[in-house]
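Researcher: Go.
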Amino acid sequence: MPRSRRSRRTLTVVILVVLSLSLISLDQNTRTHSLTSGVKSVANDVYAPLRQGVLDIISPIGNFFAGAFNYGSVQAQNERLERTIGELRAAQLEQGFEKNQLREITALQNLPFLQSLPTVTAQTQDEYSSNFTATITLDKGRADGVDVGYPVVGAGGLVGRVIQSFHHTSVVRLITDGQSKVDVTFGSTNQYFGIVDGQGPSSSMTADLVLPHTPLTRGEHMYTSGLDAASFPPGIPVATVRTFHTSAGASQETIDVDPAADLNQLAYVDVVQWVPST
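Model: Structure:
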């Protein structure tokens, strides 16, 4: 019985195929077009569900193989896109770095406190700091006009002083170094004097030898005094007052100060070709 049903289905399919071919042949003849149009309409109604079912089965398979063949191309495009994005990001970072360098150099070229003093612009090669010591190494030395004792300034003010000079490199002791001492003056007419002492890079600098109850304000600037035999020319910003108070019975004011120059941004500095008068 099952075999008989399969035979009938097979025969039906064969008949339908033959009928379709016949309709196609007849359709080519314009004289029989009116006859076949009705038959074709009926055949369309019969075949439409069958055709759609076949397409529903075949389409996903075709899409799968198309995706499989195109996967390598898509992956390559993604890799190229990722490389392009990476290159753009790197270029953006490099451009930002170059802009910062340009800003630093421009700021160094506009330091009013240097007046007409000759300078040598140098780039920082290395930094060294410990609990008590703070130095930087520059890419300029004796052969470039940098000598021991020369002051070093940054965009905000005094950075330090050259303590070693070699042929094409030099070492600068920063004002935060524990051995650094700078004579300063402050007040509305620079009538007060003191000494700014470095306490090491991890500690606040202090202003010492300032008499108790000396008028002070937070954010007030202190400048190099330029007194006779001073290590620095006058008028360079050294520090700003952060806190101050007078302890009972103290012989001096207790003052904490911050560097006027941004010592965290020292890609470029100016070495001032200046020596104290004797």
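Model: Residues 33-108 form the longest helix (76 residues).
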